Amino acid sequence: MKKKLNYIPFFVGILFSLNGVAQTNAWPETKNVNKPWARWWWMGSAVDKPNLKSSLIDFQKVGIGGVEITPIYGVKGAENNFIDYLSPKYMEMLGYTVKIADSLGLQVDMVLGTGWPYGGSQVTLPHAATKLVVEKYEVKKNEQFNKEIKVDPAKEKVPAQLLAVAAYGADGSYTDLTSLLKGNTLNWKAKKTDYTLYAVFAGKTGQQVKRAAPGGKGYTLDHYSEEALNAYVVPFDKALVGFEGKLRAIFNDSYEVYGTDFTPKFLEEFEKLRGYDLKKYLPQLLSKEDSEIGNRIKSDYRETISDLLLHKFDLPWTKWANAKNYKTKLQAHGSPGNLIDLYASADIPECETFGSMPYDIPGFRREKEDVREGDADPVMLKFSSSAAHIAGKPLTSSETFTWLRDHFKTALSQCKPEAEDLMLNGINHIFLHGSTYSPKEAQWPGWKFYASVNFNATNSIWEDAPGLFNYIANCQSLLQAGKSDNETLLYYPIYDTWGKSLEGNLFFQFKIHSLKEWLHGTPFYDTTKKLMNNGYSVDFISDSFIAQAKVENGKIVLPGNTYKSLVVPNCDKMPLTTLEKLIELKKAGAAIIFEGLPKSVPGFKDYEVQNVKLATLISSNNTIVNPVTDLFKALAQANEQPETLVKTGLKFIRRDLNGEKIYYLVNHTAKTIEGFIPLAVANKEVLILDPLNRNVGNAVVKKEGQTTLVKLRIESGKSYILKTENTASEKPWKYYDATAEPIALKGDWKLTFEKGGPTLPAPVKVSTLESWTKISPETEAFSGTALYTLQFDAPKVAADNWQLNLGDVRESAKIWLNGEYIGDAWSVPFTINLGKLKKGKNELKVQVTNLSANRVIDMEKKGKEWKIFYEINMVDKDYNKFDATKWSPMPSGLLGPVTITPLKNDVN
């Protein structure tokens, strides 16, 4: 009896379109929003119409759906071509870009400024980013204080605006002296006791726009002032006349406005929002001690900053954009506020990843010397997608692949799992970071942005980039369909962070790169991980969205979706109004599950009275708010059925499309996962869709009670999309078994270098597959595309199909068999099914493209300078001076071993 090996699913009878993608009615038509988009850096805004057009054509050809324009610093030697931001010439170029993009089926987003964060020449000092400055004076009893109050000019380069002066007596008294000021001079006598005077100033951070383009330099904007925002958009109101509805969205980058913890009207706004005069408690606010009163006042301060950012900037900004028929796209992370509410204030919430994450996929390369360690965390990613889901925003975007590897060293295969982790956590609108505008006449490697990766036609990976981009588009076409099918809400207790001393620092940013400071190790984080690891789909919810919740038929209804339950993790502080609303929802029939109960209300005003009310509310509703001892049992009682497929090691996300379910499954484990995979749906047929090639077919299923079991085999590094249906709509998915061990393809390969540089090496024959860098000095320096050709005899083995395994590919490949194009192989594992072989001689052609690194090494060793950019110029992944002469040549070409495996159709 022949030993049965493994089986590889393959759908035969594929009809390929012009770009090599199989066509079927099961796949939705790919739209530009399904495709990845690119942040497009305009260096010096030194753009011209011919190069804009050719660049947009390049984008369209490889499968990019749109661009996000960000003007930045320029290129040395191109000064005569610099264009000032928002000048008539700039607007002409922007208009031309929109026109050509539209003709190509692309769309255009833009940043409301240059570089980042928002700011520029129109920002006057009163509207510039502001910080709290306090000067203290000690005044003895009976001493006359008569002097001008001002900030030490050695500490503050920009004059600060004096707002208030208050006296704090040694006897605990408080006196507001602001009304006694004559200009900035105070004449006052300390009569009763010794006093400490606090003078409050609105100082200026002095921060300038980072990486500004010509015409875009200036102060960073005050993000807590609607007055400042209104003044800021005046130039755009004028410049963008006629662009209404022609630009897709206005973008706002991550909150990198440093040290801005104040605004000139902060004291008045604080009293309106928090209900008391902050000036009375300045000593407690500014104290570095970890005290209850001080922490409560600091919490109120931080909440006020959050409220001002949301209501005085983010929401008015979206309103302004929407009035011009633009959407908004916001990176809220880094903000000193509630990320859920801030993300939700935009039409498209956007997260980001930075650096490289590890994966257990065999053959997935992550050389330590080439990577910047990433800190992407699924829990952090879900803040943006949760905001989209609960607020009813169909898209969640991501700045993707930032510093994935060092310059010129990123392979397409290394991009795939990073993109998958984003999509698995609710991101369905990926933006490449990024692509630099580079005119055709620029010396290779062209103009480059300092942060890797650069996706454009001067990078050798562009040759096979359509493979990656089509894969993302195929996934996103279904991940944008229908709506999120997450069933569990998890309350985010932000007051537990705001209410901490935080080492006495007033200003606290919820940064994506400092999760240990505010996320990791918290009960909220631990509960999120526990739920996700056990197959529950989770969205986060804030206090303000709880306030909007309703109950219908036992489900929690929010503006964007409905949920079966809401889990409250262990938390220390919760507003009384939030707990009241949760009890109201539970009494109305909602499943509100408490892991623990809050011990206190947040904030300072009347907190003792509020705490008594909190305790009374809990005790009078003790049966309703009784914490559970078994979270999963409580979820089961809420009719939640977890996806037990996670026990196999598969990652998943699920969506609902008109009552049917869409599952995106990814295998990032080290092993093949096969067998009957359980889906938490009853009595369904299931379509299998392969986003790598758009193959599709109906799966073999078993129906057991409330579960449908789907026969699958997912190799490490692979993914599938499953779609449930009531009746089978496609031909059966064809499963194949290997009938023998892999057979090595041996012989003399003809190696022909087709395109690239610095020169095309001469053709050679190779009998042993190894890096082409070992052949000659010319091949060592070569970056580009080469063709491997092999004649081989078909094995005398019966087979319905043959699987080709290219082994180690550096870095991507296209495959032809007997003159017929089979497809591409750009991700791990580098396998593809060939169909049937001819009897006798067969010809295999494999076109391989390597990375651009070796050519850059050669350039720098020869002293050819290409780093000609202003400001930061070029740096490596660790922000040190870029120096490729220290690099070793990167293995290139077809390293093998190359094998073929006979397959037999498994009809069972």
Automatic annotation (TrEMBL):
One GO MF term: hydrolase activity
One Pfam family recorded for the sequence? Glyco_hydro_106
Q: Would the keyword Ribonucleoprotein be found if you checked this record's keyword annotation?
A: no
- Signal peptide from the UniProt entry: 1-22
Q: Which UniProt keywords apply?
A: Hydrolase, Signal
Q: Domain of life of the organism in this record? A: Bacteria
Q: Does the keyword Signal apply?
A: yes
Q: What is this protein called?
A: Glycosyl hydrolase family 2
